[in-house]
Amino acid sequence: MAGILVIGSLNADLVVRAPRFPAPGETISGNDLQIFPGGKGANQAVAAARLGADVAMIGRVGNDPFGSNLIDNLKQNRVDTSRVLRDESASTGTAIIVVDSNGQNSIVLSPGANGKVSSSDVEPASFRDPSTSSGQRFSLLLLQLEIPTETVLHSARLARQNGLRVLLNPAPARQLPDELVALSDFILPNETELSLLAGRTPAPSANQTISDLASVETAARSLVTREAQTVIVTLGADGALIVNQNGAKHIPSFKVNVVDTTAAGDAFIGGFAAALLNNKPLEDAIQYACACGALAVTQFGAQPSLPTKEEVEQFVRAPRNAQ
Prior knowledge:
Layout: E1 3-7, E2 11-17, E3 34-38, H1 40-50, E4 55-62, H2 65-76, E5 79-87, E6 93-99, E7 105-110, E8 138-143, H3 149-161, E9 165-168, H4 178-183, E10 186-187, H5 191-197, H6 213-224, E11 230-234, E12 240-244, E13 247-251, H7 264-277, H8 282-296, H9 309-317
């Protein structure tokens, strides 16, 4: 079975739990600092690998202890790191994360080596496997926006030329070139990211998200008119909304106790990719992804919260009511 290629970021997540987010100019006390492996690219790679997918990653880390730890962690999770480069001129990317008492997070990124991932790092040969008779190793490409947009666009072009389906997670939120929208088989934003993509707000913020399913569908259709094939909007505890030329369909999620929402979206995307790889129908793949995201918010930390295939299967078999 062909696998998943992830081209994206690797970060060291520096996490502090606090009772609330500090106001501007305010200093508050939090719990002890914890350091976790993270980065949207690496998170999604690990998420899919823990669900049984064959996963490889392209990215950059610095020549520092954080970089070594991130590569080792990917290897421990059965992700092929042979295409992850060590950058001598930049430090490993970091994320400063504050998690409040409700499990919500606030994140500041320092891109570091992620900002140096270039088109030259992604060659046509990256998508092929000469050891197989068909030369085909990958059928899906996962992309995010924590590396330069030009590299993301170049990767999507090569993926299309080599017969891979493209899954784009447009995060952090920014405007997208029309070509990248059209090259994406699936675009997976959250509500804040969709607001910016639809031109609803000048910049994303907690008070500028789309608030109901009807407006979510309208905003998602603005991407469909730009030739996006399928838009899947993640709605947190409310599940996800599928929007394409065939219509719109809401998929509910599961009721869980929220501990930390960090990487919940990455768990969803990794789960969706793994389900597609196993040829699940679209709605079933989204339901499976919702289960992955729900499980992730019940644990603290980014990659430590990502569930295994066995955990997800046990979770979906347990008697409970979807929201």
